[in-house]
Amino acid sequence: DRMNGQLSSTVVPFVSGIGRREEAILAMPYIMPRVVPDQKAKFENDEFFRKLGRECEIKYTGFRDRSHEERVVRFQADLREGHAEIAFVATGTNLALQFSPSADKAPSKEYVDFEKEPGKVHLQARFILNGVCVRWKGWIDLQRLDGIGSIEFDEEKAKIEEQQMKEAMEQATRRQREFEERQQAHRDQMERRAEEEAEMRRHLHQPSPSASSSD
Predict the structure, then answer these.
(1) Rounded to the nearest 5 degrees, what angle is found at the Cα of 203, between the Cα atoms of 199 and 207?
(2) Which of 12, 22, 129, 144 lies most in the core, judged by the most C-beta atoms within 10 Å?
(3) How far is 150 from 148, CA to CA, in rounded Å?
(4) pTM for this one?
């Protein structure tokens, strides 16, 4: 998904019959970061973000196969449910915006404001775009279904995501270390068992003292 990545880490249990190189590969936790390492630098230097960071024309793109009158009604219904499909006209960038932090809750006035300006709705959404935490802000005319919008770097959310990523990496490192310790303990156990079995075989093949004296 372009807007949001997933982050997870897993550790593969011991598998017998493989070499140490294969063990190391299997042991590596799988992490898909939600954000890039230096979000602010990417936001400031990436041409894609620079374009979207300037105020430009936007429009509602939902239900394009319906009449304009029906789309006006559906747009407001979408907003009250906390979502809408918005496009930046100049770049052709389409965003499925979520105006509520929780999908099952109606958006607050902070994110969907019908009262700030007559005939317009002022909107705000926070999300991850191409690995960068951003805040989308804009307004749309309730009858024309177009308006002005832009994105800005969401420093507060970026710090939260970076901290979560750091904690996930630390957890992955800890699990990796625990995996290696279990693998080493297993190898030590197998070596001790092999030595014990070798020692038992030596004892079995040694002649008894009585047999040596009779000769």
Answers:
(1) 155
(2) 129
(3) 7
(4) 0.63
Contact between 131 and 12 under an 8 Å Cβ cutoff? The reply is: no
Q: Which two tokens stand for residue 67?
A: 């009449």
What is the residue whose two structure tokens read 């304009």? 68
Q: Which residue is it, tokens 């005939």?
A: 119
Does residue 13 surpass a pLDDT of 50?
A: no
pLDDT at 14: 37
| pLDDT tens per residue, range 47-85 | 999 999 999 999 999 999 999 999 999 999 999 999 999
What distances in angstroms separate CA 171 from CA 127, 175, 179, one per listed residue?
25, 6, 12
pLDDT of residue 18: 42
- 38 forms bridges with which residues in the sheet? none
**So what's the pLDDT on residue 215?**
52
What are the residues whose beta carbons fall under 8 Å from the beta carbon of 148, sequence distance 6 or more?
55, 56, 57, 58, 138, 139
β-pair type (83-88, 132-141): unpaired
Q: What are phi and psi of 113, to 5 degrees?
A: -120, 105
Strand ranges (DSSP E) for the chain?
56-60, 83-88, 93-98, 112-113, 120-129, 132-141, 146-153
Specify whether the CB–CB gap between 107 and 79 falls below 8 A: yes
